[in-house]
Please model this.
Amino acid sequence: MKVPFLDLSTQYKGIKAEVEPLVSDILENCCYIGGKYVSDFERDMEKYLDINHVAGCGNGTDALALGLKACNIKPGDEVITTPFSFFATAESIASVGAIPVFVDVRFDDYNIDPDKIEAAITEKTKAILPVHIFGAPCDMDKIMDIAKKHNLKVIEDDAQAIGSEYKCRKAGTLGDVGCFSFYPTKNLGGAGDGGMVTTNNDDLYTALKAYKEHGAGEAGAKTLEFQTGIKETIETNEKATELYNPFKYYNYVIGYNSRLDAIQAAVLSVKLKHLDEYNNNRAKIAKMYFEGLTDKVKLPVYSKDIKPCWHQFVIRSEYKQDLCAFLSENGVGNGTFYPVPLHKQKAFNETNSRVSGGNLPVAEEISSQSVCLPIFPEMTKEQVEYVIETVNKFYEDK
Ligand SMILES: Cc1ncc(COP(=O)(O)O)c(C=O)c1O
Model:
């Protein structure tokens, strides 16, 4: 039997009839940027997450940069984050000129260890950027308490966490802003790049809207005022029409061009209706792994407070290389996220990042042992059983 690591084509077959008329409507009407599909998707997502504001954007990396900019993170500020994540997490901090400060993670859920955060705080610290890695929310009460005590912003990296919950609240609604990716392999994946930023705060939403479109217009002017105290008025006698908005050409803060396009929004709006079903299927697969895998495998240990969305199922093995080779030889797709912890990436050094406590042994050990098993909503019971059988066979003589 062959079990792919991921199978996007089976998922597409199930929604093809719903997606294709929407895409052809967009192509025929030539409304590629903005418009009804994008705003409908944003409103649907607000309901799904139970949050006041959703702003679509170009991808998850931009979502993080936009979240940081909206929170007024400036060059030289320090932002506390995890070393065990995808590169974009820390890259986004560096991209706004700030310094990522890496704090070690926990063995049980692979997430930032809240008990180690306070030791990393200095007078330069302005925010905490927790990542709900593999779709398992961090210990958010502790993180929010520390943030409150030290007057820090919290920017959630929810790229892998759509639909997951912490104490019955959805990831992306817990901090000041939530930053999501719709990269095709995510639990809610587009037909290309896409992302969104979420917030309950009206001023932050205005800033997100400003930064994602060149700091222009009323949102730009309000953002300038709310972030710097400088008050500017829009000086134009021109009137906006359906086809021409003069305010687009008056810019107040330096932003980005980062928009969710209409085709992505249409595809995502169809998939959003199926998201809970997709995530429930993933949860059933995870349950089978927990029940069937030999106890020689080190499994994640998740708190009762969370409902993960099972973006990845990641075990730890001291035989990582041999186990991956054995899985591949036997037709089981696998991955090793993340082989290099962020503080060990060549792009980071003592001038553009900081390692809290000098070393991060837990993140390094997890990186050297992590093996991702296939988990996707369309996986059959037989495929899951075959993965379990293959892993257990590998461990027979261990
Ligand atoms: C944890 C994490 N953060 C950020 C990103 C960046 O998202 P994107 O690839 O959409 O830019 C990803 C996705 O790959 C991710 O997994």
Summary: The chain has two domains: 8-264, 275-397.
